[in-house]
Amino acid sequence: AAPAGAVAFGVKHTDGVSAELLLRGRAEPEPVAAAGARWPLEEGTVLRFSISRASSEVNDNKVTVSFYAEGGKPINQAGVFLTGVGISLDVDADQDGVVEKNSPNKASWAWGPEGHGAILLVRCD
């Protein structure tokens, strides 16, 4: 996806984003933290980014990749806006008719008349 003539790239991202670069020939990914760092454009290079918390609003995180020509002249930029979505399974874990987000019985399950825990029925058709 790099523009013609690009030989290097740099990455900037907002604080809510974690980014890492997997370079060809290296076993471990390299964290992308410092703005202004540049890497050569090489086949097999992978940029991975993620969000580990829910966003406060839509598109509140961003990753920008800048492309550079020989000599460091900027050519173009590509950007991605990200929205982190929080997902939680809240259940009536103590079976009292009330769905509680922080029920102490949410993390365990016990069988029987005095039991607790969720019964999850999954429809896969």
From TrEMBL:
Gene3D superfamilies: Protein-arginine deiminase, central domain, Protein-arginine deiminase, N-terminal domain. One of its GO terms (cellular component) is cytoplasm. This is PADI2 deiminase. GO terms for molecular function: calcium ion binding; histone arginine deiminase activity. Residues 1-83 form the Protein-arginine deiminase (PAD) N-terminal domain. Residues 85-125 form the Protein-arginine deiminase (PAD) central domain. It comes from Daphoenositta chrysoptera. Pfam families: PAD_M, PAD_N.
